[in-house]
Design brief:
Elements (H helix, E strand, L loop, with lengths): L4 H10 L4 H11 L5 E7 L4 E4 L1 H7 L3 H4 L14 H15 L4 E8 L5 E12 L5 E10 L1 H19 L3 E5 L5 E4 L1 H7 L3 H4 L4 H4 L8 H11 L1 E9 L5 E13 L2 E10 L1 H15 L9 H14 L3 E8 L3 H7 L1 H18 L5 E6 L2 E7 L3 H15 L2 E3 L2 E3 L3 E8 L6 H17 L5 E3 L9 H15 L3 E10 L5 E12 L3 E3 L1 H11 L1 H22 L6 E5 L2 H4 L4 H12 L6 E6 H5 L2 H14 L2 E7 L6 H6 L4 E4 L11 H16 L3 E4 L5 H9 L4 E2 L10 H9 L6 H4 L7 E5 L3 H10 L6 E5 L2 H10 L4 E4 L8 H11 L4 E6 L4 H9 L5 E4 L4 H69 L4 E5 L4 E4 L1 H7 L10 H4 L2 H7 L3 E6 L2 E10 L5 E12 L2
Parallel strand pairs: 16-17, 19-21, 21-22, 22-23, 23-24, 24-25, 25-26, 27-28, 27-29, 29-30, 30-31
Antiparallel strand pairs: 1-2, 1-5, 3-4, 4-5, 6-7, 6-10, 8-9, 9-10, 11-13, 11-16, 12-13, 14-15, 18-19, 18-26, 19-20, 32-33, 32-36, 34-35, 35-36
Helix pairs in contact: 13-14, 14-15, 17-18, 18-19, 19-21, 21-23, 26-30
Length: 966
C-alpha cells in the first residue's frame, strides 16, 4: 500500500500486481460471500474487486477494471445509491471517509441492502493514493427493521385497543385505539396502572389477577373501563402472557362491547315487538297472555282483523297500507285501558288481551269498531276502514293461551261470515269447538270432489341471466259465497282433518300434467315445484308415486321439483331424508322453503339432500334496510353456496330488493315485483313472449360506466357535471342521501363521489350504507370540511377509497376518478370470474351427484341380477332332472346339480365347447328333435328348448325314461 501512483500505474499496465497487493487481494477474496470489497484509484477508477462482488453481478474482472466505480453495474439499480457514491468519491479525494446504506441488484434479480464504506488510504506524503470500498449485506437487518415497523404500524392502526402491561400493573405501551377508548393521550395512559381504569380491579386484587394470568397463560373476561369523562364502557378483555428472555409482560386486547350490547338490545326488540307498529308481536303476545292467565281470574282475548285490507295495498300501494296499519294500531292503543295489552299478530290482524269482568270485552269491542270506522286521511287519500272482532274468554272457553287465541280466531271467522264489521263471541258447538272450521271443512271436501280447486303458478327468475327458469305451483280456492279463501285458512283445516293427503295427490297430479304439457309444447325448459306437506312425507310410497306420475306423463324429472319446510322435517327426519334422497336420485330438484324462520339446527342443513335454499320473505332486504339485515341475507347466500346449494329469495316486491339480491350473488328470486301467481295460460304466454328481468339490472350486458354525484348544493353537482362531460361516463346527480339510495336501486353505480356535510345523513354514513348495499362500488368523499376522525375511521374500515378536498383541482379530480373507474373495472372482472367459477363448481357438483346416483342405481341393478342368477341356479339345482345350458356360440354355460352328478362334471366345464363335453346323442339333441340315450345305466329322453329374450342359446333337458339296465 506504499506504492506511489506512478508505480501503481505501471503495475496496472503490466497486469502483474506486486506481491503486497496480491496479498491484499487474497485477503479481500477471503472476506466471505456477503462482503464486497475492492481498490480504487484516488480518482475513483476501479483497480480491483473481490470474488464476492464479481459473482454478485456475474461479470469478469476485465469487464469492470479500469472503469469509473460509479459507472459499474453494481450501481445501475438505484440512482439514489449512485448519487451518494459520487458524493462519497468527492469527499474521499479530500481524505474524508464515508459510510451509508445502498441498494445493489444481483444477477438473480434480487435487491440487496448493503452497509457501504469508502475509506481513503494515504501515501507517505499525506496524499490520498487509494480508496478502499467495502460493503456488507444487511438485508436481514433491514427486513427485521421493516417487519418491526410494520408490526408497530399494524398495532397502531388496529381498531382494537391494545396494551402492554408489566407485573406491577403499569401500562408500558398503548396504541391509538386504546387512547380513543379511554379519551386520553398516550402519555397520560403510560402514567397509569390497570386499577386506574378497570372498575373491577383495585390495587389489592391486581397481584391475584397477575398470578392467575401467569398460571393459566391467558385470560378472557368482561369488565367495565373508565372513560376520562367519568362514564363506564363495557368491554371484552383478552390477556396473554408474553415472555422474552427474562422479561415477562401481559399483552392485553380490549374490545368495546357498546355496539354489540346495542345490537343485542335491538335484536331483543325485533324478537318481541312488531317493527312497523312497535306493538308486541306474536311471541311477546303468547308470553304476556300466559302471565295474565296466571295472574287474573278472568281474561278475555279479542282478535281484530281489518276488513278487505288487501284492496288498500292493491289500490293505493303498500306504503299507504303500512300507514293504515300504523294508524289503526295507534287508535287501538288509545281506545283500550292501561292494563290491557294490544299486539299485532300478523298482517292486518291485532290481538287485544283484556283482564277483568266478562262484560268489558263486548263494550270494548264496539269501541274498537267505532275507532277503526273513523275516516283516515293519509297522503291526501281519505280512507274508510271497518274491522271484525272475535272474542273468547278465560276460563270459560279455555285457560291455555294457544287454545284461547284459536277460539277467538274461530269467533272472528264467524263475524266475517255474518257480513264483516261485526262482533262475535265464541260459542262451542256440539261435537266441535269451531263451527267456522267445520263449515270450511265441509266446503273444502266438496271443492275437492267437484274439482273446484285450481293451481296458479308463480314464476321463479334466474338472477344471472334474468330468464324464467321455474314456477311454484300454488293452490287456490274460490268459494261460491266467501270468495277467494286464503290458503292459510283452509290448509290448516286440511292438515288437521287428513284432507291434505288427497289434496296433495291432486296437486301433484295436476302440476306434473301441466308441466308435461309445457314440455310437449316446446316451451323453454321450466322446472315446476310443488310444496309437500308433513303428512305426505310420512307416506312410505311417496317417491314411488311421484316416479309413476313422471313416467305416465313423460315429464323429464329434471323439470320437476318439490319444496319442504324445516319444521316438517324435524318430526321424522330420517324418513324425510330417505324420501328426498330417492327423489334427487331421479333428478327431481329439492328445495328447502321458508329458510331462516324455523328453529332447527343448522347442522341439519348439511345433512339434508337439498338443491335450493329458499330465503323467507322476512329476510329479503331493500336498499333502505338496516345494514344488519343485508348482512344476514348475504351470510345465508354465502353459506348455501359453500354447501353447493343454490339460493332463491321469496317475496321480492321491489326493484331495489332484486338489485340488492343480484349484487349479493343470489341465484334466483320470485315475488310480486316480477309477477304474482298466475293461471297456466298466462305463464305460457309469458314464456312465449320471452319476458325477463332487464339485463341492465343484473349487469349482464355492456353498459356505460356510471358515476353518482351527491351534494346538497345543486350548483356543485352542476359544476361537476360540466367538468366531467367529456369523460364518457353516465353521470347521475343527487342532492340528498335518500335520493342517492333510490338512484342506486335503479342504476348500477360504479363510483360514488359524495359531499361530507349534508342534512339528514353525512357523506360518510351514506358511503357506509353504500358499502353494505353495493360493496363493489368505489366510494370517494369531496368536502371542504376536514372531519378528520370520522373520515379516518371510514377509510380504515374500507367505507371510503379516497378523500378529496374542496376546492378541487380539475385535472387531479379527473385523474382520481379515472383511477377509481379502473379499480372498479378490475373488481368487476374478478367478480364475474368468481361467479363463473362458482357456477361451474355447482354444475360440477350436480353432475357428480347425478353420476353417483346413476352408479348407485347401476350397482343396485347389478346386485339384483346377481341375486336373480343365484335364485335361478338354486331353482334349477332343485329340479330332479339334468339340465345343461348352451349359449349361441356353442359354449357350455350352465350345468345343474343332477347333470353334474350324472356326468361326473364340476364347475371347470363351464365356458368350454359343448361339442367336447357332451355325448354324440346329446349333441344331436342340440340340433333339434327328441333323442333317446343311456347314461350311467339310466335311460333318458333328451329335449332341446331354445331361449328367447335377453338370454340367447338353448337348454338341454334329460327326462328320465322307464327301464334301467342293471
Amino acid at each position: 500500500m506504499s506504492k506511489t501512483p506512478t508505480a501503481l500505474t505501471l503495475v496496472a499496465a503490466s497486469g502483474v500486481p506486486p506481491v503486497p497487493e496480491l496479498a491484499l487481494h487474497e485477503v479481500l477474496d477471503r472476506l466471505g460471500p456477503s462482503v464486497f470489497a475492492g481498490l480504487l484509484d484516488a480518482d475513483g477508477t476501479l483497480r480491483y474487486a473481490n470474488q464476492a462482488a464479481l459473482c454478485a453481478i456475474d461479470i469478469t474482472p476485465d469487464q469492470v477494471l479500469g472503469q469509473r466505480f460509479d459507472a459499474t453495474p453494481w450501481w445501475q439499480a438505484c440512482d439514489l445509491s449512485r448519487h451518494r457514491l459520487q458524493q462519497a468519491l468527492v469527499a474521499a479525494a479530500r481524505g474524508e471517509a464515508s459510510r451509508f446504506d445502498v441498494r445493489i441488484t444481483t444477477v438473480g434479480g434480487n435487491t440487496l441492502a448493503m452497509d457501504f464504506s469508502l475509506l481513503p488510504l494515504f501515501g507517505p506524503d499525506g496524499r490520498v493514493i487509494w480508496l478502499i470500498p467495502s460493503a456488507r449485506d444487511v438485508s436481514e437487518r433491514d427486513q427485521a427493521q421493516r417487519q418491526l415497523q410494520l408490526t408497530r404500524h399494524a398495532v397502531e392502526q388496529s381498531n382494537d385497543a391494545l396494551f402492554q402491561v408489566g407485573p406491577d400493573g403499569a401500562f408500558r405501551d398503548a396504541n391509538a385505539a386504546s387512547c380513543r377508548l379511554l379519551g386520553l393521550t398516550r402519555e397520560q395512559v403510560l402514567r397509569m396502572r390497570v386499577p386506574d381504569i378497570d372498575t373491577q380491579v383495585d390495587d389489592s386484587q391486581w397481584p391475584l389477577r397477575w398470578r392467575e394470568m401467569c398460571d393459566r397463560g391467558s385470560l378472557r373476561f368482561e369488565t367495565n373501563v373508565r372513560h376520562r369523562d367519568g362514564h363506564e364502557i363495557p368491554v371484552d378483555v383478552s390477556v396473554s402472557q408474553v415472555t422474552s428472555g427474562e422479561e415477562t409482560f401481559a399483552h392485553v386486547c380490549i374490545d368495546d362491547l357498546r355496539e354489540r350490547r346495542a345490537a343485542e338490545r335491538r335484536i331483543q326488540q325485533l324478537l318481541q315487538f312488531d317493527e312497523l307498529t312497535g306493538l308486541p308481536n306474536r311471541q311477546r303476545l303468547l308470553e304476556s297472555l300466559d302471565a295474565m292467565l296466571l295472574a287474573s281470574d278472568q281474561t278475555a282475548v279479542l282478535v281484530l282483523e281489518l276488513d278487505r285490507f288487501k284492496r288498500v295495498n292493491d289500490g293505493l300501494g303498500m306504503h299507504i297500507g303500512d300507514a293504515v296499519l300504523l294508524e289503526a294500531a295507534q287508535r287501538l292503543v288509545v281506545a283500550v285501558r292501561g292494563v290491557d295489552l294490544v299486539a299485532r299478530r300478523s298482517g292486518d290482524e291485532f290481538v287485544i288481551v283484556v283482564p277483568g269482568p266478562t262484560a268489558v270485552p263486548v263494550a270494548l269491542a264496539q269501541t274498537l269498531l267505532d275507532a277503526i270506522a273513523r275516516p283516515m286521511v293519509i297522503e291526501g287519500h281519505e280512507i274508510y276502514m271497518t274491522c271484525s272482532v272475535g272474542i273468547a274468554m278465560a276460563p270459560a272457553d279455555s285457560d291455555r293461551a294457544d287454545t284461547l287465541l284459536r277460539r277467538a280466531n274461530a269467533a272472528l271467522h264467524q263475524a266475517k261470515l255474518h257480513g264483516r264489521n261485526q262482533i262475535a263471541v265464541y260459542a262451542a258447538a256440539p261435537h266441535d269447538d269451531d263451527p267456522a272450521r267445520m263449515a270450511l271443512e265441509t266446503a273444502l271436501r266438496q271443492a275437492l270432489r267437484n274439482e273446484r280447486l285450481e293451481l296458479h303458478y308463480q314464476p321463479q327468475v334466474d338472477l344471472v341471466h334474468g330468464r324464467i327458469v321455474g314456477v311454484e305451483a300454488l293452490l287456490r280456492w274460490d268459494h261460491p259465497t266467501l270468495g277467494r279463501v286464503a290458503p292459510d285458512r283452509f290448509i290448516p283445516i286440511a292438515e288437521e282433518t287428513g284432507l291434505i293427503v288427497a289434496i296433495g295427490d291432486w296437486v301433484l297430479r295436476h302440476a306434473i300434467e301441466q308441466a308435461a304439457a309445457w314440455q310437449r309444447a316446446g316451451l323453454p325448459p321450466l322446472r315446476t315445484a310443488v310444496n309437500l306437506s308433513a303428512r305426505q312425507l310420512l307416506q312410505p310410497d311417496l317417491a314411488r308415486r311421484i316416479e309413476g306420475l313422471l313416467a305416465a306423463t313423460g315429464l323429464d324429472p329434471r323439470l320437476f321439483g318439490v319444496e319442504v319446510t324445516e319444521s316438517m322435517l324435524i318430526g321424522n327426519f330420517e324418513q324425510a331424508v330417505q324420501h328426498l334422497q330417492a327423489l334427487r336420485a331421479m333428478g327431481v330438484e329439492v328445495s328447502l322453503d321458508d329458510f331462516g324462520t324455523g328453529y332447527s339446527s343448522l347442522s341439519y342443513l348439511r345433512r339434508l339432500p337439498v338443491d335450493v335454499v329458499k330465503i323467507d320473505r322476512s329476510l329479503v332486504p331493500d336498499v333502505t334496510a338496516p345494514a344488519q339485515a343485508v348482512s344476514i341475507t348475504r351470510a345465508i347466500i354465502t353459506m348455501a353456496h359453500q354447501l353447493q346449494m343454490k339460493v332463491l329469495a321469496e317475496g321480492v316486491e321491489s326493484e331495489g330488493q332484486a338489485a340488492l339480491l343480484a349484487a349479493n350473488q343470489c341465484d334466483q328470486m320470485q315475488g310480486y315485483w316480477f309477477s304474482a301467481a298466475m293461471p297456466a295460460a298466462a305463464i305460457e304466454a309469458m314464456l312465449r313472449d320471452g319476458r325477463q328481468i332487464d339485463p341492465v339490472l343484473l349487469d349482464r350486458r355492456a353498459r356505460q360506466p356510471t358515476l353518482l354525484l351527491v351534494d346538497d348544493e345543486e350548483n356543485i353537482v352542476a359544476a361537476l357535471r360540466r367538468l366531467l362531460r367529456a369523460e364518457g361516463w353516465l353521470v347521475l346527480g343527487a342532492t340528498s342521501a335518500e335520493q342517492a339510495l333510490q338512484l342506486m336501486a335503479r342504476h348500477e353505480v360504479d363510483v360514488i363521489l359524495s359531499d361530507q356535510r349534508m342534512p339528514g345523513m353525512t357523506g360518510v354514513e351514506l358511503l357506509r350504507r353504500a358499502r353494505v348495499l353495493c360493496p363493489d362500488t368505489v366510494r370517494l368523499v369531496l368536502s371542504g370540511y376536514t372531519e378528520l376522525q370520522a373520515i379516518t375511521e371510514a377509510i380504515n374500515e374500507g367505507a371510503i377509497y379516497k378523500f378529496l378536498a374542496k376546492p378541487w383541482d380539475d385535472a387531479q379530480l379527473r385523474s382520481h376518478l379515472r383511477d377509481a373507474f379502473a379499480l372498479k373495472e378490475m373488481a368487476d372482472s374478478n367478480r364475474r370470474l368468481d361467479l363463473e367459477v362458482q357456477h361451474a363448481n355447482r354444475e360440477l357438483a350436480e353432475l357428480n351427484r347425478r353420476l353417483q346416483a346413476l352408479l348407485q342405481a347401476q350397482r343396485a341393478q347389478n346386485q339384483r341380477e346377481v341375486d336373480s342368477r343365484e335364485a335361478t341356479q338354486e331353482l334349477l339345482d332343485a329340479l330332479p332332472v339334468p339340465v345343461f345350458g348352451v349359449d349361441d356360440e356353442g359354449l357350455l354355460v350352465f350345468v345343474n346339480a343332477p347333470a353334474r352328478t350324472l356326468c361326473d362334471a364340476d364347475g371347470d366345464v363351464l365356458g368350454r365347447p359343448a361339442s367336447g363335453e357332451l355325448s354324440d346323442a346329446m349333441r344331436r339333441a342340440l340340433e333339434g328333435g327328441s333323442v333317446k340315450l343311456t347314461l350311467a345305466g339310466r335311460r333318458f329322453r333328451a329335449l332341446c328348448r331354445p331361449l328367447s329374450g335377453n338370454a340367447r342359446g338353448c337348454l338341454l333337458v334329460l327326462l328320465p325314461q322307464a327301464g334301467v339296465r342293471a
